[in-house]
Design goal:
This protein has 541 residues and is of the alpha/beta class. Among the domains are: 76 residues, no CATH class; 141 residues, P-loop containing nucleotide triphosphate hydrolases (Rossmann fold, 3-Layer(aba) Sandwich), CATH 3.40.50.300; 68 residues, no CATH class; 90 residues, Zinc Finger, Delta Prime, domain 3, CATH 1.20.272.10. The protein is built from 24 helices and seven strands. A five-stranded parallel β-sheet has the order 2-3-4-1-5, with helices on both faces. α20 runs parallel beside α22. The longest helix has 20 residues. The N and C termini lie far apart (96 Å). The relative contact order is 0.06. The C terminus is likely disordered.
C-alpha cells in the first residue's frame, strides 16, 4: 500500500524500494523524507544552486508532516524546500488542471425528492384535498392520531408520515423516529418507548416533546410484536404510524386496528407521476442534475414513457429516470473530450428510458391481495361471458409470475360452479387443461390456459347445481330432521336379520317400474326441491 502511494507521487521504483528498506516500513512520511534527503544530497553535489527537480512531485497535496524533527528546509537536513507553486520561469511548467465537475449527490434521487410537507404530496387528493379530512384537521389542530397507511409501493406512505409531522405548526415539539419491521424487534420498540416517555416528562419552556414512531412494513411483525404497541398507543406514550402494502384486515391484529385509523392510498395516476418526474428534472439543488453532476435535459416523451410504465409507483419511475440520466452521461462521456471546457448538453433519450426500465413494472404479489384481486377479476369476467377481459386478466396473472397450475385448478372449479349442467363438456375441458399444464409447463401452457378460459367464458352458464348444493346443505344444517334415519325402503339389506327388520321393504326397482311413484327423501323433507332443473323427460320436478 505504501509502495503504491509513493509510486503515484512520482518516485522511481528503485528509490521507493530503497526507502522502504531503509525505514523498515515505519511510515509513509518517513519513507518520503528519506527519498527527499537522498535526492537533495545528490542535487547539492551536482550544483551549489538549488533548482527544482523536474521529477520531484509536490508533497503537500498528499499529506502534511507533523513531526518533531527539524523542517525539511533546514540546512542541517540538507533537504530541498518544496515550492508552493512552480515559478513562471520554470522550464517544466505545471500542466493545466482539468476542470472538475461539481460534486454529485450520492443519495438516491427518490429519497432526495421525498416531499417535506403535506402541500408537496402528489396524488392522494382523497386524503389531503379536503380541509375537513382527518389529516388536514389533525394538522390544523396540532393533534396527530395513530394511523395505518395502507397502499401499494411508491404511493407516498413514508412521505406522508414525515410530511404530517413537518406540517404541524409546532413541528419542533414532535420527535420523528423510524423503524423497519424487516430489521427491528421488540427491544427496538421498547427503547423508543422508554425514550419517548422520558422526553414526555421533561418539558422545555412549557412544551412537551411527543414521539411519532413510524414503522415501515408493519405487516412483517408477528402477533406478539404487534401486541407490544397496544399499551403505549393506549396511554399516549407514542403516536403510532404504520405503513403496509398488505391488507390490514389479513395481516394486522384487530386490537391494533381498533386503536388506529386506517387510511388507504391509491396507486398514482400517470399525470401524478409525470408531475413528480418534472419536479425532479427542474430542481437544480437536489434534483436529477445532482445525480450526474451537471445540467441535464429530459424531454416530454421520456417523462410520458416512464409515467405510463411504472404502474403507479413513483419510486420505480424516479429510479428509472436516474438510471437513464447516468446511462446518458456515460454515453456522452465516451464521445466528449475529457479536457474540453465546453460541456455538451446532456439529454436523456427514450432509448435510455427503455433500457433503464427494461420492461413494464407489474404490481403483483402471489401471496398478497393482488393475487386474490386478479383471480377474482378473471372469475367474474368469465362469469360475465367476456372472453376479452378474461384473457386479459389471465395474461396479467401469468406476467406477474402466477403458477399456471393454480389458475388451472380455479378453472376446474369454475367449470362446475358457473357452467355446470349448461355445458357438461366444460369440466372435461378444464381437467384436460390442468393435465396439459402439468405435462408441458410454462411458457407453452399459456395457450392451453387461454383456450380453456375462452371456452368457459363463451360457454352457457348455469349455477343450478351450485344452488342445489347450497340449499341441500342449509337443509342438512337447519332441518329438524337432519338426524332422521334413512327410510327403511332405501336401506341396504345384506343379511336375513335386516330383511326381517324391514330393511329394503317396499323398494320399487325403478328400471323395471319407471312410472311408479316413489319418494327418496326423509319424511320431514317430503316434497322439498333443491335442484331447479328439468328432468330427463323435460318436466320440472
Amino acid at each position: 500500500m505504501e509502495k503504491q502511494q509513493l509510486l503515484e507521487m512520482g518516485f522511481s521504483d528503485e528509490l521507493v524500494s530503497q526507502a522502504l528498506s531503509a525505514t523498515v516500513g515505519k511510515s509513509l512520511s518517513s519513507a518520503t523524507e528519506w527519498i527527499l534527503s537522498q535526492e537533495s544530497t545528490t542535487e547539492n553535489k551536482r550544483s551549489p544552486v538549488l533548482t527544482p527537480s523536474p521529477s520531484q512531485p509536490k508533497i503537500n497535496p498528499f499529506f502534511r508532516l507533523n513531526s518533531a524533527k527539524k523542517p525539511r528546509h533546514s540546512p542541517d537536513n540538507h533537504q530541498q524546500p518544496v515550492p508552493a507553486a512552480e515559478p513562471e520561469s520554470s522550464p517544466h511548467p505545471e500542466p493545466k488542471k482539468r476542470k472538475q465537475p461539481p460534486p454529485r449527490n450520492e443519495q438516491p434521487l427518490a429519497e432526495r425528492m421525498r416531499p417535506h410537507t403535506i402541500s408537496q404530496i402528489v396524488g392522494q387528493d382523497h386524503l389531503l384535498a379536503d380541509q375537513s379530512s382527518i389529516l388536514r384537521s389533525a394538522i390544523d389542530r396540532d393533534r396527530l392520531p395513530s394511523l395505518i397507511l395502507w397502499g401499494p409501493p411508491g404511493t407516498g406512505k413514508t412521505s406522508i408520515g414525515r410530511a404530517i409531522v413537518n406540517s404541524c405548526s409546532s413541528s419542533s415539539s414532535y420527535r420523528f423516529v423510524t423503524l423497519s419491521a424487516v430489521t427491528a424487534g421488540v427491544k427496538d420498540v421498547r427503547d423508543v418507548v422508554d425514550e419517548a416517555r422520558k422526553r414526555k416528562k421533561n418539558t422545555i419552556n412549557g412544551t412537551i416533546t411527543r414521539t411519532v414512531l413510524f414503522v415501515d412494513e408493519v405487516h412483517r411483525f408477528n402477533k406478539s410484536q404487534l401486541d407490544s404497541f397496544l399499551p403505549v398507543i393506549e396511554d399516549g406514550s407514542i403516536i403510532f404510524i404504520g405503513a403496509t402494502t398488505e391488507n390490514p384486515s389479513f395481516h394486522l391484529i384487530t386490537p391494533l386496528l381498533s386503536r388506529c385509523r386506517v387510511l388507504t392510498l391509491n396507486p398514482l395516476q400517470p399525470h401524478h407521476v409525470s408531475t413528480i418526474l418534472k419536479r425532479a428534472t427542474e430542481d437544480s439543488d437536489i434534483g436529477l442534475s445532482q445525480s450526474v453532476g451537471r445540467a441535464i435535459n429530459v424531454n416530454d416523451e421520456v417523462i410520458e414513457f416512464l409515467s405510463q410504465h411504472c404502474d403507479g409507483d413513483a419510486r420505480v419511475a424516479l429510479n428509472a429516470l436516474e438510471i437513464s440520466a447516468i446511462t446518458a452521461a456515460s454515453r456522452l462521456g465516451s464521445t466528449t473530450s475529457d479536457n474540453s471546457d465546453s460541456a455538451a448538453l446532456l439529454g436523456v433519450t427514450i432509448e435510455d428510458a427503455k433500457e433503464a426500465l427494461q420492461s413494464k413494472h407489474l404490481s403483483y404479489d402471489k401471496n398478497g391481495e393482488q393475487h386474490y384481486n386478479l383471480i377474482s377479476a378473471l372469475h367474474k369476467s368469465m362469469r360475465g361471458s367476456d372472453a376479452n377481459a378474461s384473457i386479459y386478466w389471465l395474461a396479467r396473472m401469468l406476467e406477474g409470475g402466477e403458477q399456471p397450475l393454480y389458475i388451472a385448478r380455479r378453472l376446474i372449479q369454475f367449470a362446475s360452479e358457473d357452467v355446470g349442467l349448461a355445458d357438461t363438456s366444460a369440466l372435461t375441458q378444464a381437467v384436460s387443461c390442468y393435465q396439459a399444464c402439468h405435462f408441458i409447463g410454462m411458457p407453452e401452457c399459456r395457450v392451453n390456459l387461454a383456450q380453456c378460459v375462452a371456452y368457459l367464458a363463451l360457454a352457457p352458464k348455469s349455477i343450478a347445481v351450485y344452488r342445489a348444493l347450497e340449499a341441500a346443505t342449509k337443509a342438512v344444517k337447519d332441518s329438524i330432521g337432519q338426524n332422521e334415519g334413512v327410510p327403511l325402503h332405501l336401506r341396504n339389506a345384506p343379511t336375513k336379520l335386516m330383511k326381517e327388520l324391514g330393511y329394503g321393504k317396499d323398494y320399487i326397482y325403478t328400471p323395471d317400474n319407471p312410472s311408479l311413484p316413489q319418494s327418496f327423501l326423509p319424511v320431514s323433507l317430503q316434497g322439498s326441491k333443491f335442484l331447479d332443473w328439468p328432468d330427463i323427460f323435460g318436466a320440472d320436478k
